[in-house]
Amino acid sequence: MSTTLQHDHACAADGSRVDAVLTVENLTVVYEADPPVTAVRNASLTLHRGEILGLAGESGCGKTTLAYAINRLHRPPARIASGRVTFHDSAGEDIDVLALTDVELRAFRWEKLSMVFQGAMNALNPVTTVRAQLRDTLLAHRPGLPRAQVRERSAEVLRRVGVDPRRLGSFPHELSGGMRQRVMIAMAMLLEPQVMIMDEPTTALDVVVQREILTEIVRLRDELDFAVIFITHDLPLLLEISDRIAVMLAGEIVELGAADLLYRHARHAYTRRLLGSFPSLSGARGAFIRTGVDETAAPADGTIEERA
Ligand SMILES: Nc1ncnc2c1ncn2[C@@H]1O[C@H](COP(=O)(O)OP(=O)(O)OP(=O)(O)O)[C@@H](O)[C@H]1O
């Protein structure tokens, strides 16, 4: 299938130029199983500086595989068969992510781009305190950072995600699930990356905690201006928090557009089906959700659409 994503839409509603921080071009990821599974096929997207880009789609459509591949966290049997991932550093340099050496990749992750994945709270080391884990990550990237600054920065990131800095001395088992997930988000923010990829970061949490953390993420993005790729199968949630949404189906990005436009004028039949499958919605964009889906806006050929 031909994929004609258009990248000339990098303009804000007022016509001003929008800066790209990450460009993914025609990325294809194959699991070399028997038979091989093409989990991501020719995926292309542009992430704008400071935006929240939602990535939606049903279970198994390839969201996690795409997220891991962007960050080169994929493991065999997954293999990037083709494509490009370019990080447009705020310092002016373009970084070819797929060409980074292992050493360069270690420096790149956390510092430029960080990831919070589903159940990340279980990734905290159970036998070391929050303080030690934040310190180790900081010092791995900023060797020689004075102790006072390590302490100060660690306390600051915890405060930012709504965790009392007195928790620095806690072990993970002494924290609730919500708090542990907040600590992971703090860890992801520690080095002030320009991009955070969040893969179902709140799915394991109860709805109230989930909402609190999401509110926090949106607030932090407003304050600190990092860009987020936010992955979930929960389209109503994405409609509330995202600036733009990409919809994946069977490994392909079938539609990409501004969240409200996508809600009101979903072009792809699958997006409309996805929208129609949620019984009720609430929140900022909830007002116009479920007011009816525009059946007339579908493209005749089902091609990929990108609208700013
Ligand atoms: N190790 C593997 N070997 C073979 N196929 C795999 C492997 N891991 C994932 N897949 C396949 O790749 C496809 C995409 O999986 P992926 O986990 O990326 O989807 P997803 O959209 O993130 O799903 P979910 O929302 O359930 O996490 C699925 O068809 C899955 O079966």
What does the model show?
This protein is of the alpha/beta class. The protein folds into 2 domains: 1-50 and 59-106 and 243-308, no CATH class; 125-188, no CATH class. The chain contains 9 helices and 11 strands. The chain has helices spanning 63-70, 102-108, 130-141, 147-160, 177-189, 207-224, 235-241, 259-264, 269-276, and strands spanning 20-31, 37-48, 52-56, 78-88, 94-96, 113-116, 195-199, 227-231, 244-249, 252-258, 305-307. The strands form 2 sheets. The protein has a 7-stranded mixed sheet with strand order 6-7-8-3-9-10-11, sandwiched between helices. Strands 2-1-4-5 form a 4-stranded antiparallel sheet, covered by helices on one side. The chain starts with 19 loop residues before the first strand and ends with a strand. Mean pLDDT is 85; it is low at 1-17 and 281-305. The structure holds adenosine-5'-triphosphate.
